[in-house]
Amino acid sequence: MKAMILAAGFGTRLWPLTIGRTKPAIPFLNRPLIGFTIDYLRRYGFEDIIINLHHEPDSVRQQIGDGSRFGVRIHYSLEAPEILGTSGALDNVRDLLNKETFAVVNGKIITDIDLATALETHRQKSALATLVLKSNAKRERFSEVKITDDHRIAEFAGFPTANQPPTTDHRPPLMFTGIHLMQPEIFEYIPRGVFSDSVKDVYPAAMADGKVIAAHIASEQSSWFELSTLQRYLEISLEFLAREGRNVVMDEACQIDASARLANSVLWKRVRVEANARLTNCVVGDDVTIPAGAEFSHAVIVRADLAADGERPEKALPAEVVGKNLVVKIG
Description:
Helix content: 10-25%
Distance between the termini: 41 Å
CATH superfamily of the largest domain: Spore Coat Polysaccharide Biosynthesis Protein SpsA, Chain A
Number of domains: 2
Oligomer: single chain
Number of helices: 7
């Protein structure tokens, strides 16, 4: 079976970590984030994988290559000059996906959701598409998905609120995990050659036509992490580190002075932390030098020259130039 990993987005909420790289190409525990998705798909027999690219496409190509070191075959789909959206991305490669059931997975997640069980649901429901959902017990800022009694998608709703009245069965709201299973017939509802979105454009049209868009609810025991903001990137990194009894991770060629103090922090490649500097709850990008005696807490730090054009994406957090570094406060 074939699968597609969506990796074309700009990653504006992860800026400045996405300067020079697309979101799925950022390192997570010293591996490219998209590598976790490739491993996940391969475990379930998906060895032919398409990756769509738009923003900083070489940042993925250089790290993933042809996929051979991951045990898969990679086909890249470049979207240019404009990005095409989640369904426009499929339209761009419909000739590669029009033979059998295929999967589509967002490239910014890490999960162990049982995809084989989701495939069983997809087949049992004779669904045109199946969306993998999970409960949102913490009522985080993910759009709610409402379903019918027979587990068909009924509505894509807004964000849940803390004071939202409970459902009649007292279950938490459901959210979409970014994992889809589809039949080739889905292309009948995907417009040709234009931007289109699966949730906003394609699925509603198919549902209005009476097609089955099924819901598979992942097991409560399964894990799922979505790294789309700076705060979530740091929190999830620290959660994974805590499992190993660590609270700091450093990539290659980092230099840390013996008098420096680091806690709950992520250091990318070739970071230098000088004498008596302090880092707490920080993410530090490639080639950054933390000067002697400097103290940073709850911050993302990259080299200031990376943002020399002065442009900050609309959804990005405010930044401040401190010496030779660009600092974004988080948390």
